[in-house]
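Today's session is about reading a structure prediction critically. Students often jump straight to the picture, but the first step is always the sequence itself: look for stretches that repeat, for charged clusters, for runs of hydrophobic residues. Only then move on to the predicted structure, which in these notes is written as discrete structure tokens rather than atom positions. Here is the chain we will use throughout the hour.
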Amino acid sequence: MALVPGNTLITATPEEGRELALKMARLVVKATQPDDATRGRLRPEYAESADSLIAVAQVVAIEFATIAAANDYWRKA
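Below is the predicted structure for this chain, in token form.
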């Protein structure tokens, strides 16, 4: 499983960077728990947990910060 889709963090826009961050966060969950049935069984538990949802948002934010840095915050050097 490729944890960095396309093997690059470079994106054309911040919106594409955010989409990549979300995809990468989902891939981390899938890599951590590769069993589809288990993920499906657990989904209702974390979907109703404010703490779990905040943790997910933090993971996406960290991924996005990494992508933004790789893209020099979408400014030319």
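Discussion point for the tutorial: The radius of gyration is 14 Å.
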